[in-house]
Amino acid sequence: MTDIDLLAMTDEAPGALRLEPVPAWAGPKEDDAGKDGGGKNSTETGTITKTRPKTKRPNLYRVLLLNDDYTPMEFVVLVLQDVFNKSREEAMRIMLHVHQKGVGECGVYPYEVAETKVTRVMDTARKNQHPLQCVMEKQ
């Protein structure tokens, strides 16, 4: 059956009828006849829904500074300000927490960001010949 085989009638003006072609996909299918008991003239209607893939949030990682007895406190404060964009007061608070507790959280980031920050801290410490350690752990 071609697109022009099926015709539909439409009203253009009162009393005037015109035949216009209807696409083959719009008419009843021959294989659907008898499925719902309606014969050849029955049509099925339905709703087409488009499913969207569910996106999930990326895993977050905590970036931690580890205490050592050799890295100057002022250097740790500068690293926190430079790498983690902390204010002087917040950097001092984190540095003192690391000094007293042995470990302190600098921030929580997606994997790639956390990895970059850890690398920057380690590179800066190495360049300045300090044994400061920075690690990341899954939250």
UniProtKB/TrEMBL annotation:
KW Hydrolase (keyword) present: yes
Segments for region (Disordered): 18-54
Biased composition (Basic and acidic residues): 28-38
Keyword vocabulary terms for this entry: Hydrolase, Protease
InterPro entries from the UniProt entry: ClpS, ClpS_core, Ribosomal_bL12_C/ClpS-like
Gene Ontology molecular-function annotations: peptidase activity
UniProt domain Adaptor protein ClpS core: residue ranges: 56-134
Any one biological process term the GO annotation gives: proteolysis
Pfam families referenced in this protein's UniProt entry, alphabetically: ClpS
Stated role: Involved in the modulation of the specificity of the ClpAP-mediated ATP-dependent protein degradation.
Assembly behavior: Binds to the N-terminal domain of the chaperone ClpA.
Family: Belongs to the ClpS family.
Listed name of the protein: ATP-dependent Clp protease adapter protein ClpS
Source species of the chain: Devosia yakushimensis
